[in-house]
Fold each of these.
Amino acid sequence: MKNLYKDSVVFVLADMGGGGAQNVSHNVMNYWAANGKNVALITMAPVSEDKFPIHPAITRHVIGGIIPSTNLISRLFNNIKRIIQLRKVLKLYSGYTILSFIAPMNILTILATVGFKCRRVISERNDPAKQSFGKFWDYLRTKLYPCADVVTANSQGALETLSSYVPYSKLGYLPNPLRHSFPHHPVSRDQKIILTVGRLHQQKAHDVLIRAFSHVADKKEDWHLMIVGEGPEREMLTELISQLRLETRITLCGFQENVTEYYKKASIFALPSRYEGTPNVLLEALSYGIPSIASDAIPSIESLIEDKVSGAIIPCNNEREWAFTLLRFIENHNKLDGMAFQARQTAQRYTLDNVIHDWNKYIFPDSFR
């Protein structure tokens, strides 16, 4: 039988919505499909919910299963049904590498491929110590992840967490690639806009940034905060903005397919997240030469931002420190060319051409033999 490991891979995700794992997946799978690899994609959510374009050479399967579970019995039944549906499709791909993302889909994929001849590669895109999907999924992580052939993550902090229950020999680092072509020139910073990009979710700490901006708004009346992203905290954040009387100064922009236009407008980028893996949006902002401020809760943030050289690193949830740093950047935003240059130098390391070797090494190991 022909060894298909060398050039064939199936991606497994819950959906192709606007999240970071989907961003990374679409970038890599489209690159491989365009370069002659055999690529398939399995999702539970329908194509109509996709936020990222999929290369026409990629074979697509939708298995359904996006059903709310109201109690323990329905949760168990729904997950058994998902495993059965996933197993039916994966039977078509004997000999392929199966690459799944995010804990619940990783666990379902491991269970669905019991007894199959395939390589199972699973990927975490946040630190499991900080991103819980509930006690049930957290427990199954520790018991089932060692059954995979390779367990990957996008930060050294996440790999350290995983090493407590996965052998080091099975762990691999898969960096996030920049999803767009590297801009030829940094942004001009003529417009007075602070930008952040991320789901409206507790993880992203938009509330901290909004409160920090409220301390700055009266001092700098011509500056505006733009928040690109959609999610479950929209109502809460809208109410917070209203309470602070900043409706004309802060814009919740919703999900945007073309975030590039927002990077081009921004003078300062802010990422106050309470936890992350390697944030795609920060890499993209750095690639545009936008002076960036980021939370110290992001693993290995020092490898992305050198404090006071290419940006600033601020303690997570420290509203006043965020306000102070925003004000400092605003007052010096036309003197930050050095930071812009260093930011672009850092981002260059994460272009797809520079990181695809790492992905090939773990997904197509026969190419390295």
Amino acid sequence: MLLRATISLAALPILVAACGRPSQEVTVQRSSDEVLSCFQLNSEYQANLDSIGFNRDESLARERDNLGSIAGVLVGGVGALAAVDMGSAEEAELRAFIARNRRIAELSEAKQCPPLEPDMDSIVSELEAAEAAREAAPTTRPEEQ
């Protein structure tokens, strides 16, 4: 009985960590959009590109952690499944930042600002290609690495 209680308490931090984090709210269209200067549009666009990269990296790290947790099931039993992060905050934010940057690109073009680089179509293409490559890659068990 005492052993079960100890194991349950030890699993608590793992269960809490598995919940993921809440997604950051990203508004695609804002009431202040029309008054932004070309410089401000470019600055926000570049900041959003940084956020897109961060969310992609965070999503990849979560996938690696989940693979390790699933591999732990083979070694440690079903309790290791509690460490799998099923959150999708990164994906939701990624889509929102992409949508926001597409809106910024529309505004920039309407104001006849210099083109924003890199364009979102190429960024989305790169993200989709990386996702397809990751899905097509064979998975290996940790002991095979």
Amino acid sequence: MPLCRFSWQNRPTYQQVVSFPARRGDPIANLAAGASAGASSTQILPYYPASRAVDGDPTTRWASASSDDQWLRVDLGSARTVARVVLRWEAAYGKAYEIQTSPDGSSWTTVYSTTTGDGGVDNVTFGPASARYVRMHGITRGTGYGYSLYEMEVYSR
């Protein structure tokens, strides 16, 4: 019987660890998807309305006028528990901004604030709050343009 001679190599398998912030049965839907949205201002030419920040399309966006102190508000339709907001910034981002909640769209509670925003994707978590309205209140812009968000997502966890 001939002897087979070949080199043997140990090739390890690779495993990927995936973390999910929810348990089976927990609500994980984006509460802002398709919701009514409003803004303090909208860039006119070209037109970037508030509704584009909650349409689920990563290629459309809301853009504000080119000044500080602007906001984007989402109406969840009824009081919901919210604990996380994901902001998907276009190149024009907020350096200083707040995430605020409201039961009625008039009185606002700040649940998160930062002065070190750097654009990209911000995954903002805070203690659970009951709110019908959620808004990003831009205080200071990070560029000479207005604020611009591809998506503003709101989650209960």
Amino acid sequence: MRPLINVQNIITRFGANLVHDGISLRVNEGEIFGLLGPSGCGKSTLMRQMLMLEKFQGGFMEVLGCDVSRAAHQEAQSLRRQWGVLFQNGALYSSLTVAENIAVVLREYTDISDSLINEIVAYKINLVGLQPKDALLYPAQLSGGMRKKSALARALAMDPKLLFLDEPTSGLDPVSAREFDRLIVELRDMLNLTIVMVSHDLRSIRSTLDRMAVIDQKKIAAEGTLAEVVATNSPFIDTFFKVTDE
């Protein structure tokens, strides 16, 4: 399989604090890949580095064929058009309706007409399982599940190749979380997406991920399918999946 993300020997420091000490992994085209590990291990930091929102101090990171540490402004802007991001709490603009939130990226990055934007927004709302009437609601009027779906619709607005999800089921009740898991897999299959997901939710891990990397002690403790990772001879892996399962 062709890797869309290639991470080699990443070193990350915040002052004297070493966060990543030689992190290496790859994300293959078409897979749902998980970044796992205990709180504070640097999962979200690694995702933010892939998104060019954080810098690393050593190593190499290539996303969609581009060296993100060397990308010029125009190349970086082109990259951003090829991925979508669902942040942990949705990060919807509170003063905009659902439809207006989805339309933001289309107005920012394209010059298409308002009528076409409205058509795309309606399609994305339907795609994530929201109702047409939900388009007129503001974030404060949405349930947790609706908020996540609205943010997902915005992340899909530009028909991305890559989708980044930061704790997508966090804060959802069990029924809504499992519904969201199914939606993620359906969208991957329907849209030929490659997805990178940070998660602590073992049910999501079991039902959605094709492969994963587990970070511990600033390094990759294991990478592979769930069966391959669980089979790793590591007390930390045993404890992590047992605790997460509970």
